[in-house]
Amino acid sequence: MFIEVVTTAQTTKLVNLSFVKAIEPAEVGCAITYSDGDFISINDSYDDIKMAIDRLTGYEAATPTTETSTLEAEEAAITN
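RESULT FIELD:
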């Protein structure tokens, strides 16, 4: 699985997540550390990277949105 990132040097890179050891927030963007110890600094925030990975894996955050909460309330009202 790959994600596309923009480095702090303003270049676009594809990152193979199979070789990523850690993704950590940094002062600017975040740092991706590979399993061989190499790393890159990227402009994308930690949250942006996490959301990209979540989209690729099909994971949805458990935090309900107002829209979701309203829909659930409407469905509950119909079934009760």
